[in-house]
Amino acid sequence: MNKVLSVPRIKFDNETLETDTSSSQSEVERKISSLFELYCSKVECDPDVPVLYKPIHLSYIRSHLFKLPQNYECLDSSRPWLCYWLCQSLALLNYELTSEEKSNVVSFLSKCQHETGGFSGGPNQMPHLAPTYAAVSALCLIGTEEAFNTINRKKLHSFLMSLRMPNGSFCMTKYGESDIRAVYCAVTVAQLTNVYTADMFESTNRWVIRCQTYEGGFGGVPGVEAHGGYTFCGFSSLILLKSIHMCDTKALLRWVVNKQMSFEGGFQGRTNKLVDGCYSFWQAGIFPVLTNLLESEGNCTLWPLYDYKALQEYVLICCQNRYSGGLIDKPEKPPDVYHTCYVLSGLALAQHAVKNETSTVGSHKNILNSNNPIYNMELTCLKKALDYFKSTTPIN
């Protein structure tokens, strides 16, 4: 098996101390090991494997765009997120919606825009930073004049300002929680739509850096455990705030490289947790930016700081539902649109990890469109949106 996979795989050693955590880890490795063995038996006969089953995934994504299964009822307050996850997945797969389909998505998102500014999780709900980020990102991915013009930038600016706290942090919604996700959503939306102002983010960088822990990653608020999603939000926020010099990048690098699993090849979100396909983006998305930073500091070229081929192998061999389509957390889990988006997003970054060189596992047909690791948006769509809003009048 190790002769065919990109690197030797080292299984977890419980050092003769059996716990619930070690038992769960061993069970996941057992399932993945069988998939790796199956892959190794096939690759000797078919050099194109592993295959990214694009047509099946496209069918899955399109089937969820305008009609969702009943089990998605619990996400009624997250409907702009569903639009974003699906639009991002389609963009990475290089699939363009028809003009009518684009207009239908824009029409729905316009109904989620609150009269006071920002977007809600659904029509007639309270405005909230999370669906605001998702709605704005989805509209940027659609990329039509109608989509861009749907965003009321003046009211959006007022909405963001209303959620700013005296210490520089942001609340998710009025009277809501204040954490590092809110900062990321606010600064991303502000930069995307050209409503960013210095007073909006005064001292925000100082609050964000307080969330970096002794481990090197970032917690949701100061003083809590580092976590992959929060680390992405903190690191990306500092980039967008032009304050990355405040980050202890060496500690961050040490923490995040140790989150890639030695047997699975995918990433875990926290220490002693199981591998999860979504961290193919949340964790691995940090590496392209971190590599560029270290290269500029040392005036040298670095090889990718993580095993991008092992990550691709985990995604392609273990995270695809090749029957109904969609991508998954880990073997034997059902597909969903959240994991489909973030697994594809991480896969796209891994495929383009080496500049000007082939870094794709499997056939060239597996290649996805380039993805931006800070905004998590397909690169062509992002450039178009930034150019459009750059030409608009700044909000003071």
Task: Please tell me how large the radius of gyration is.
Answer: 21 Å
Task: Quickly give the structural class.
Answer: mainly alpha
Cα separation of the termini = 60 Å
What's the helix-strand series?
HHHHHHHHHHHHHHHEEH
Give average pLDDT, whole number: 95
Largest sheet: 2 strands, antiparallel
Strand order of the largest sheet: 1-2
Helix content: 40-55%
User: What oligomeric arrangement do these chains adopt?
Assistant: single chain
Total count of helical runs of at least 4 residues:
16
Percent range for β-strand residues: under 5%
The count of strands amounts to: 2
Q: Extract low-pLDDT stretches.
A: none
Cα shape:
globular
Would you give an account of this structure?
- The protein has 396 residues and is an all-alpha fold.
- Helices cover 48% and strands 1% of the residues.
- A two-stranded antiparallel ribbon has the order 1-2.
- Strand 1 and strand 2 (377-378) form a beta hairpin.
- Helix 2 runs antiparallel to helix 3 (79-92), helix 3 runs parallel beside helix 5 and helix 14 runs antiparallel to helix 15 (337-351).
- The protein is globular.
- The protein starts with 19 loop residues before the first helix and ends in a 6-residue tail after the last helix.
- The model has no long low-confidence stretch (mean pLDDT 95).
